[in-house]
Amino acid sequence: MNFLKKIFQKEPLVQSESPEDFWSWFKENSTEFFNVxxxxxxxxxxxxxxxxxxxxxxxxxxxxxxxxxxxx
Length: 72
Hints:
Strand content: under 5%
Number of strands: 0
Shape: elongated
Largest sheet: none
Structural class: mainly alpha
Number of helices: 3
Distance between the termini: 62 Å
Oligomer: single chain
């Protein structure tokens, strides 16, 4: 019966990623993200749609928002 358990065993829904992996990736893309937010260049498609899958690898229940105090 063990073979049935292996066949019907559910795979994890997502792979996990460490927070360190996320921040490393985020730093590599930070200039692009900064410019998207600063210029309000389709923030949803050019920022949220890119970070959402990465954050979901860490925790599917994360909520996030973005904004700027000033131009810097």
